[in-house]
Amino acid sequence: MYDFNPRPAATAQLVGMPAAEVERDLILATLRQTEGNRTHAAGVLQISVRTLRNKLAIYTEQGFDVPAPGLADNAH
Predict the structure, then answer these.
(1) What CATH number has the domain spanning 17-66?
(2) What percent of the chain clears pLDDT 70, i.e. is strictly above it?
């Protein structure tokens, strides 16, 4: 399921980046991949939806482009 031996080229870009930036980029990329579906993105990232929403609120306040919630989140 998980690749514990990532390609060196994939990890080389991360070396020297602050962990908070890596986390933010990963969260936003996952959210784009899940078409804004917060529940799905939280599951992929293995964090709670509440944690995801709190982090997204911070990113929005900081001026980052946070994908809008997907249709799946609004269907409930």
Answers:
(1) 1.10.10.60
(2) 87
